[in-house]
């Protein structure tokens, strides 16, 4: 019986354990931290062996294959040990993929991947049997076990791709690439770029790579590396023969001389970056033969993503906006680009090697006050201290919101767009966003 060891008992770990057990593996789950009650109950109910707050080395080294949760870096001692012993260490995506014949649409990128994945799923589900997994919702492995959809839209992070070796999506999308998570890539941007491009490493010309042709990093990589897939770029600045581009207020998509035209004026999501997300999602839908009418209607009624430029409430004519999902500078760039009114900006958290220079023009133009919400705000104060009249520090969301309430005047915005990871003060960006919304609602 093959031994499957799982490092990390979160959503992907427990999903993989269930699928592995169903496929005849002897499964052992090991977590360095405490396992959440809801996951522990699943493991116990299914009689899957587990341990928490430790890794028993002998048991781990007996594995035929190890599935590592994306949150665990490759540099960790136990992972290094496994690799040195020649034990394959893979991601949940790689593991589950071998047990499905579904058509896979895989989406990666520094920003926009969640919105693009949710939008693509929303467009496809009107006419196809399709699951949404990866970085969102129920784990991919669990869905392969329980639903076995004919199609999947997967949001895939660079960490998940690092553990992919045979994974070959029918359609891959790279939304954009900007410096992010550099702490996991030896602070080398090249390593992170190569990681994202693993999404297309096994694709052939029967498969498709959709990407942002306006993104210099992506365009450079494609020009300098052999890509086997059929490429369908999208652009909002130039005309594209095969792919998608913006012509005034219409999206024009051409695939094999077959053209569709989508008006953008009624698209539910606002902002230039969302036109790009819509282009990518519509290109997939067109490839998978979704009717034009369905694509158009779905783009118009899509509700957007929680914690991504989410309007929370208007209080005394001040708009409160939750953009907690902005965990890097580029995401915050989109947020500041999309607001027009004077803005009180709540920023900060765990800095991942951020360069804030690209935000300077917005700070001068739109930001009237900055509230730093992190354990260590030194870098923010050094960057922005001289640019605004008011810059304050706090470690409590409720206090940050109260300060913002005092500063903001009628017609202003209060924007939570942290540009940083959330783990210093919050469980994750969702927890941070929910605390923001609760604090706003209790003003």
From TrEMBL:
Main location: cytoplasm
Name of this chain's protein: UDP-N-acetylmuramoylalanine--D-glutamate ligase
HAMAP family with a match to the protein in the record: MurD
Function description: Cell wall formation. Catalyzes the addition of glutamate to the nucleotide precursor UDP-N-acetylmuramoyl-L-alanine (UMA).
Entry EC number(s): 6.3.2.9
Pathway where it operates: Cell wall biogenesis; peptidoglycan biosynthesis
Gene Ontology molecular functions: UDP-N-acetylmuramoylalanine-D-glutamate ligase activity
One of the Pfam families matching this protein, by short name: Mur_ligase_M
Positions that bind ATP: 109-115
Keywords: ATP-binding, Cell cycle, Cell division, Cell shape, Cell wall biogenesis/degradation, Cytoplasm, Ligase, Nucleotide-binding, Peptidoglycan synthesis
Reactions that this protein is recorded to catalyse: UDP-N-acetyl-alpha-D-muramoyl-L-alanine + D-glutamate + ATP = UDP-N-acetyl-alpha-D-muramoyl-L-alanyl-D-glutamate + ADP + phosphate + H(+)
Start and end residues of each Mur ligase central domain: 107-284
Protein family (similarity comment): Belongs to the MurCDEF family.
Top-rank lineage group of the source organism: Bacteria
InterPro entries attached to this UniProt entry: Mur-like_cat_sf, Mur_ligase_C, Mur_ligase_C_dom_sf, Mur_ligase_cen, MurD
Mur ligase C-terminal domain ranges (all copies): 307-420
Protein's cellular compartments: Cytoplasm
Transmembrane segments: none
């Amino acid at each position: 019986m093959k031994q499957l060891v799982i490092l990390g008992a979160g959503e992907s770990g427990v999903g993989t354990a269930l699928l592995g057990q169903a496929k005849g593996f002897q499964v052992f789950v090991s977590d360095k931290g405490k396992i959440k009650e809801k996951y522990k109950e699943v493991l116990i109910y299914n009689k899957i062996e587990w341990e928490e707050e430790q890794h028993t080395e002998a048991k781990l080294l007996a594995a035929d294959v190890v599935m590592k949760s994306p949150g665990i870096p490759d540099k960790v001692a136990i992972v290094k040990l496994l690799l040195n012993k020649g034990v394959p260490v893979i991601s949940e995506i790689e593991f589950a993929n071998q047990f499905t014949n579904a058509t896979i649409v895989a989406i990666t990128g520094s920003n926009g991947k969640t919105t693009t994945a949710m939008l693509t799923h929303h467009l496809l589900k009107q006419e196809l049997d399709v699951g949404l997994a990866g970085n969102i919702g129920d784990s991919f492995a669990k869905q392969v076990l329980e639903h076995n959809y004919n199609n999947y839209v997967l949001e895939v992070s660079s960490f998940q791709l690092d553990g992919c070796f045979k994974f070959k999506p029918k359609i891959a999308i790279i939304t954009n690439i900007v410096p992010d998570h550099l702490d996991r890539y030896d602070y080398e941007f090249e390593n992170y770029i190569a990681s994202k491009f693993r999404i297309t490493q096994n694709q052939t010309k029967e498969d498709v790579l959709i990407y942002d042709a306006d993104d210099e990093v992506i365009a450079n990589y494609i020009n300098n590396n052999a890509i086997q897939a059929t490429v369908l770029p999208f652009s909002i600045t130039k005309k594209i023969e095969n792919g998608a581009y913006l012509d005034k207020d219409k999206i024009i998509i051409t695939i094999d001389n077959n053209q569709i035209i989508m008006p953008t004026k009624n698209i539910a999501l606002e902002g230039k970056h969302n036109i790009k997300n819509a282009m990518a999602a519509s290109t997939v839908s067109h490839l998978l033969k979704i009717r034009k009418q369905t694509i158009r209607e779905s783009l118009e009624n899509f509700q957007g993503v929680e914690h991504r430029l989410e309007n929370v409430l208007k209080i005394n004519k001040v708009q409160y906006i939750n953009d907690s999902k902005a965990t890097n500078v580029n995401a915050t760039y989109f947020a500041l680009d999309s607001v027009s009114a004077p803005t009180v900006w709540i920023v900060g958290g765990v800095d991942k090697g951020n360069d804030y220079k690209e935000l300077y023009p917005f700070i001068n133009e739109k930001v009237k006050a900055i509230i730093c919400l992190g354990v260590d705000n030194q870098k923010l104060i050094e960057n922005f201290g001289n640019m605004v009249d008011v810059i304050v520090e706090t470690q409590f969301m409720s206090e940050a919101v109260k300060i913002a309430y005092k500063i903001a005047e009628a017609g202003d915005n209060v924007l939570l767009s942290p540009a940083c990871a959330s783990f210093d003060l919050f469980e994750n960006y969702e927890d941070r966003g929910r605390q923001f919304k609760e604090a706003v609602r209790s003003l």
